Amino acid sequence: MIELAVVENSERLRKPKWLKVKLPTGENYRNVRQIVDDHKLHTICESGNCPNMGECWGEGTATFMILGNVCTRSCSFCAVATGRPTELDLEEPERVADAIRLMKVKHAVITSVNRDELADRGAFVWNKTVVEIKKQSPTTTIETLIPDVKANWDALITMISPGQEVVSHNMESVKRLYRLVRPQAKYERSLEQINRTKQFGKRTKSGVMLGLGETQDEVYAIMDDLVENGCDVLTLGQYLQPTRMHLEVKEFVTPEMFEHYKEIGLKKGFKYVESGPLVRSSYHAERHVF
After folding, report:
1. Cα(289)–Cα(205) distance, rounded to whole angstroms?
2. What per-residue string of b and e applies to 48-84 under the rule 16 or more CB within 10 Å gives b?
């Protein structure tokens, strides 16, 4: 068994050197910033405190978050605001598509908050967004990182049917920690959602955070569950605590361990594994269209 880099102390763990990132700068970053602001759009890059925002925006790409920036879930790891959303912007799909066209994006990633108060979980807006992007930028490939539909399988079909190349749904953590990490979700239900997406004929993808106290065997087990349910692409990244109100980091997993998990994942049958301390769901997402 490969050892994890665990620092035991009575206070919070200090970030190791491999988690340091550069501050966002550069002309491309400013251009993306301007387009996002002008179109009054939300990005998970900002709402999720993504450590790769400077790199991705500097390359002219961003992950757009539709259906507002208030989530009906209260996941204990997530920096997105929790509450009851007050907006349903039916013109948002056109603005997202226009921004992607202006940015000349070759591969677009779209995600959303959970909208459990909506009967269709926001599926209509999801569908319309993909349709509009394909209309304005027909050569742009799309990944949709969709939320848990709570077994509303009609909503799932509406979300995944308009023509995106990749459909992602994040498991986030291992089975034992699910009630702690995703208290309003169910491990088996998320696996079924991935399975149904695969059966529909889509390329499937999921992401898992490490450093929350999971064991190596538990990581191997979730890999097996995902492969069994038709998941094509896996992303593994280090969990980072957004605020003191969120779950604490239990360990900082070494880059060497992430590389080990990548090798194991590929042997287990994933077509692609993106694994590293700073990896997030949409990091290098263009590589996952095959």
Report:
1. 10
2. bebbbbbbbbbebbbbbbbbbbbbbbebebbbbeeee
Q: What is the CA radius of gyration of the chain?
A: 18
Give 152's DSSP letter. Answer: -
Alpha-carbon separation of residue 174 from 183, 192, 261, 279 (angstroms): 13, 15, 14, 17
**Which tens digits make up the pLDDT trace of 187-212?**
999 999 999 999 999 999 999 999 99
Q: How many domains does the chain have?
A: 1
Q: Tokens for 23, please give them.
A: 């501050």
Please answer whether residues 179 and 157 qualify as being in contact, where contact means their C-beta atoms are separated by less than 8 angstroms: no
Q: By the 8 A CB rule, do 51 and 67 touch?
A: no
Helix (H, G, I), strand (E, B) or coil at 66: strand
User: Which residue range forms the structural domain that includes residue 150?
Assistant: 17-283
Q: Is 4 among the domain residues?
A: no
Residue-level pLDDT at 29: 54
